[in-house]
Structures are given as C-alpha cells and as structure tokens.
Amino acid sequence: MDPALASLVAPALNALFGIASLAILALGLAVVLGLLGVLNLAHGELVMVGAYCAYAVQSQGLPYLAAVPLALGLCAILGWATERWLVRPLYQRPFDTLVVTWGLSLLLRKSAEAIFGLGYKSLNEPVGGTIVVLGASYPRYRLLVIGVSMLVLAALVAWYRRSRTGTRIQAMVGNPDLARAFGIPVRRYASLTFVVGTCLAGLAGVLIAPLVPVQPFMGLDYILMSFFVLVVGGLGSVAGLVTGATLIGGANSVVSALSDSTGGYLSVLVLAILFLWLRPRGLHAR
Amino acid sequence: MNNTVNLARRRIVVAAGGAAALGAAALRPAFAQANDFKIGFFIALSGPAALFGPTQRACADLAAERINKAGGILGRPVRLIFTDAGGPPAETAKSAVRLMLEDKVDLFIGSHDSATREANIATIKGRTPYIYSPVYEGGECSPNVFCLGETPPQQAQPAIEFLAKEKNAKTFHLIGDDYVWPRKVNEQVKKFVAASGGKVVGEEYVPFGAPNKFEEAVTRIKGAGPHAVVATLVGADNVNFNRTFAGFGLDKTIARVSLLLEENTLLGIGAENSGNLYSCMGYYANSPSEGAKAFKAAYLAKYGDKAPQLATIGADCYSALNLAKAMFDKAGSADAKKLAAASEGLPFESASGRVTMRGRQVDKDMYLATCKGTQFEVIKTIKGVKSGTACRA
To answer: How many CB atoms lie within 10 A of CB B75?
Structure first.
C-alpha cells in the first residue's frame, strides 16, 4: 500500500473512534430528551455507574461481559425509580426536571465517592494489544468499541422502527392524548423509554471504562459533549444523533490531528455556539 | 387548627435554631482563643483535585498536633483553617481576602496549582506570609512568599540527563496541560534538552479542564517517533494520556517521564500501561530516606490502615507546617524582613527528612524512579539538588 495513504489510516480510525464513542455516549441522552423532552443532567453519572460496574466485575476477577447485565440491571432500576418518583410529576416542566436530574447527578457522584473513594480506578482492556489495519497498527479494543457502538445504534433503530413497542412509543411521542384514547398505556411506555435511555448510558459506561480513568467526576465530561451532539444534530431522530456525533466528534478529531487539542476543543465550542445561534433546532429537527 | 399547629411548630424550630446559633456564638471563644496562631490552609476540597484533599488534611493535622505538643508557634497554639482551593483561582483569592480581614490569619499555606498561587499572591500582596508547598515551575520571588516544591532544575534536569545518557534519547516530544506550570517548566526543559545534546521535536498543550482525549496526540507522537516524551499533564489528563499511549503500543518503544506523577495518578494509569515510565520527585510514599520512613510510620500510627494514600501532594503540607514552626520561632516575630532573614540557611524537617531553605526555596535530595506496575522503584538518588532559584532575603 502507498505509504502516504497508509499514514492516513490511523487518523481516519481516530476520527471514526471519536464519532462512534460520542454517538454511543450521547445515545441515552438523545432517547430521553428526544422522545420525552426531559434533559437528564444525570446522564453522565449513569455512564459513570456503568463504568464502576465494569470495575467491580473486573476487580472480582469475573469475565468482563458480566459487567453488561450488572450495569443494565442497575441502570434500569435507577432509571425506573427516577422516572417514577422524580420525573413523572414534572413532565412539561423542563426547568424543574433539569433541577431534579441535576440533584440526582450530585447524589450519584457522592454515592460513588462514598463507595469507591475519589481515587482513579484503572481497568485492563478486555481485548488488549494492537492489530494491523491497512498497514497501520491500531488498538484492538478501540476497534471493538467502534463495532459495538454501530451495532447498538443499528439494533436500537431496528427495534424502534419495526417492533410493536417501538410503534407505540412513536404514537405516544406523536400525540399522547390520542395514543391514550387508543388504549396505549402512555405512562408505562414513558417509563420504558426512560429506562431504555438510562440503560444505554450504563452500557456506554461499560464500553468506555477500560479507556479512561474511572472516577466519580467522569460523568461531567460526557454530559457536556453529548449535549453538544444533540445541539448540532437536533432532537428525536437517529439521523440527527449520527450527524451531530459526526460533526462534533469529526471536527474535534480532525482539527486535533491537524493542529492540537486546543484547536479541536475550540472547533467543538464554535460549532455548538453557531448552531445554538443560527439553527437552534439543529440539523434534523423532528 | 392544622395551620396553627404548624405555625407553632415553626416558631419553636426558629427559636431553637436561634438559641443554637447564639449558643454557638457564645461557645466560640472556648474553642478559638484569640491567642491562637491561625493558618489559612488552602487545599483541594472540591473539584477533581479533591482526590488529594484527605491526604493533605491528614498530613497537616499530623504536623499541627506535633507542633502543638512542642509548644505551638511563637508560643501560641496552632489552629488550621482549611479552605477550598479546588475551584477557579479567583474564587480562592476571594477566600484569601476573607481569611485576612475576618479571621486575621497569621500565615497562609497553599498546596494547589500555580494559577491559584499567582491569584493568591496578587491578592495577599505580601501582607501575610505565604508558604507554597507543591511541585512548581520555580522562579517565585514575590515578597513574603516561601516555596518548598521541586523546581525544574531539581526534577526535569536529572530526568532528562538520565534519558539522554542511559536511554540514549536524542529527540523529545513535550506534552502538557495549557496553563502556567507546564509552559514555564517546558521553557526550561528545552534548555536541559539542548544541553544534553538532544532536540525537542514536538511541543503541544491540551486545554486545562476540558474533556480531553489523546488519540490524535498519540498518533502524532507515533508518526514523529521521538525517543522520549516529557509530560507536564496533571491528574485525569495524565492518566488518560498514559493509558492511551500504552494502548497504542508506544510504551514498548518510547520512554516517558511525567513531571507530576505520584501514587494516585500511577494507580489510575494502571500496571498494564506503566512500562517505560519514569518520575523524578523529592518524595514517594516508599522513599528510601530515614526521614520519609519516620514520617510514614507516624502517619500510619495516627491514622491506621484506612489512612488516605500518602503522596507528594499531601506530604508537602506536613513539610510546610514544619517550616512555619522553624521559621517563625527563629525570627521571633511575623515581620516579613525578619522571616526572610530567618529562612536563609534554615534547616527543617520535611516529609523526606532534613532539608535546608536557601533563597526562599528548598535544596533537596531527588529520587529518580521507574514504575514497576503501580509502585515506584527508586533507581537513582541525587543528593542535595539546588532549586536554581535564589530570592533575595
């Protein structure tokens, strides 16, 4: 292979990794905000819960995959309880849900601190080492993250579009009163949607945990970047999420590769500000 | 009916609250004597650096307890007022004003980043003595300020000489967080690299406090292929960079030295990712010096097995209080000129043993360590390294 072309493989994979990891991290937030209109500020902390599940599993010497049911179970319980007692009384009151989920994020962070302490936890990559792709060696686990993220995204789209439950959720989002009149249990589906969102956050946490320092504050980074993705992409569609992740993650990665991380982060902020200013509903407004 | 009951209950609560507040006010002098030697002690109680908070507090309390047993400072019992320095520098500087005007502290001690130190110095303006204790970039000579931390001539110079001589490193890549400490340190690192006959082939900074990822930087380093990387990243960024670096397999071919690498950060980096990684500090929890062993024994005796992890950030608080005791007692007053004169050539007990203050900085023994898993292994001790900064008394 042409060496000039080969030198582009690693940056391209970096961009792809940036986009895929951002999409999976933002997915849960997108589901809850896009379908229920609730900006869940505890989203990043649910990612953290998933990451600590992975740490707990690995430090007990169990296989890494055991973290998936643990994180899904824990996040489902947290999501269900949050929806039932905190969010349900506050639908249609966006500012109040913002405050209540912010409070939840503080509670989760402090709980993690109380259980695990403030120190950084390090996890071994379940699939370590590098592999040669088109002439460039690239970490195996990062490739796995790219693949799993795409799979999860595709599976969610298929489920939402094809399944009976997905159709009913679409009906609920489109017109809750009409859906209720047709006998769709709107409350139950709202609860289910919220739980799906929190479970996706937990799953993203399990996926990302071996690559980052696991610590109680880690969620703050993810809520911010996820929010930027939704600002750019718009709410309520997978196309919006993917476009948002591609623009934000891609710009960050490409500019970071061409200049430095400061430039990359600057481009993310400029993009987010431009969109909030000129196109506040994002590229794919529903 | 219900309303009146509620109202009555509220009155009782208010009355009880008021009484408690009055009681607290009345009781206050019983705990806080006007005679106390009050120290405004800046540590990280919030934010990401709060990881160090428990160690900082424990080490400071240990030193204060010992000093009070030995008669306090200037014959007055020491009282520490722990104040958060984990937020933005301007917020910490505001706390400094409150400590000066309301609490009328006799001394400030700070264990925080350099950006906060600059804000504090601009606010305190030498009116109250200020001991700054952690690793820093050197060159701080503001009036009435005393620095304990390792400077680049103590840390970076031996590390780069080691890499150049023992690891045959000729080309260096520098990466740091974007604020005053990394940039000033790297100015000097470039001189040390040039003096060793090597060359800096890359220099980059990442935004401080942003959600940073390092895939692009590591790919860039891989493409440039330097012999060694000098990292002035802190906390989570340092962990993240080193994990990504090893994840891409560069740990096998490129040596790394990190200038703020202590026990907590190394635990985060993890045994899998710490190959070919070096650190040069004046203190490790397992430093071989007699002083460090005695300090650690006293620390564990006071706090037991559940004691917060000992590290250079934290141990510096212990050293700072010991300097305060030695310096104020020798000067016999809190006068800036007398303190500066007393500090010159003053020996005192640091966490790693007896050191000497010169030019309001500290000359000390340095330890070059390699990372074995998540432990430091000292491979070279360099005795009495000069700080390279000499402030006039």
So the answer is: 9
Predicted local confidence at residue B331, as pLDDT = 95
Of A118, A139, A220, Cβ closest to residue B248: A139
Within a domain: A231: no
Total tally of structural domains belonging to chain A: 1
Structure ipTM: 0.93
Rounded to whole angstroms, the Cα distance separating A259 from B298 reads: 50
Nearest CB to A130; choose among B54, B249, B309: B249
Q: Which residue bears the tokens 């400077």?
A: B151
Q: What phi, psi does B175 have (nearest 5°)?
A: -135, 135
Written as six digits, the tokens of A197 are 């969102």
- Ramachandran region, residue A100 (left: φ > 0; alpha: ψ -120 to 50; beta: rest): alpha
Q: Decide if B229 contacts B264 (C-beta within 8 A).
A: no
Whether A122 is covered by a domain: the verdict is yes
Chain B contacts of A264, Cβ < 8 Å?
A: 216
Q: Region B40-58: what's the mean pLDDT?
A: 89
The structural domains of chain B, ordered by start, are 37-150+289-363 (3.40.50.2300), 152-281 (3.40.50.2300)
Q: Which of B216, B221, B248, B254 to mutate to test the interface with A (most CBs of A within 10 A)?
A: B216
pLDDT range class, residue A2, cuts 50, 70, 90: low
Picking from A49, A46, A43, A45, the residue whose alpha carbon sits closest to that of residue A67 is A49
Q: Residue B20: pLDDT band by 50, 70, 90 thresholds?
A: very low
Residue B34: φ, ψ to 5°: -60, -25
Chain A's closest residue to B244, CA to CA, is A211
Closest residue in chain B to residue A139, using alpha carbons only: B248
Question: Do the Cβ atoms of A120 and B240 come within 8 Å?
Answer: no
The confidence score (pLDDT) of residue B59 equals 96
Looking at the complex, report in whole angstroms how far the Cα of residue B249 sits from the nearest Cα belonging to chain A: 7
Closest Cα in chain B, distance from residue A231 (Å) = 17
Q: Cα dist. A246→A144, A146, A219, A222, B116 in Å?
A: 18, 13, 21, 16, 37
* Cβ within 8 Å, pair B216-A253: yes
Q: What's the CA gap between B111 and B47, in Å, rounded?
A: 14
Q: Which residues of A256-276 are buried (b: 16+ CB within 10 A; e: fewer)?
A: bbeebbbbbbbbbeebbeebe
* Structural domain boundaries enclosing A137: 3-218
Distance from CA of B286 to the nearest CA of A (A): 19
Query: Would you call A128 and B272 a contact, using CB atoms and an 8 Å cutoff?
Result: yes
Yes or no, beta carbons of A122 and B309 under 8 Å apart: no
Distance from CA of B125 to the nearest CA of A (A): 33
In this structure, of A199-203, B42-46, B325-329, the range with the lowest mean pLDDT score is B42-46
Kindly state whether residue A261 falls inside one of the protein's structural domains: no
pLDDT digits (tens, 9 = 90+) for B271-292: 999 999 999 999 999 998 999 9
